[in-house]
Write a structure and sequence with these properties.
This protein has 72 residues and is an alpha+beta fold. The chain has one domain: Glutaredoxin (3-Layer(aba) Sandwich). The chain has three helices and four strands, in the order E-H-E-H-E-E-H. Strands 2-1-3-4 form a four-stranded mixed sheet. It is globular.
Amino acid sequence: MEITLYGNDCPKCKVLKSKLEKENIEFEEKEDTEQLLSMGFSSYPVLEVDDEFMDFGQAYKWINDRSSKNGY
């Protein structure tokens, strides 16, 4: 599973990064604004999981669902 967090130092980006780390989910972090814009997104954070893109709310739910399935 390939996971990329597109973010910067915004509060929501920090929340997602912290949750991913807390749940021991390996991810790559990118801060390339031009790349994000070229993909059609205009705001941070965006979480990409195996070519599926999620905004903050969707990503937060994905992390929570994943941790509850693993019994955390």
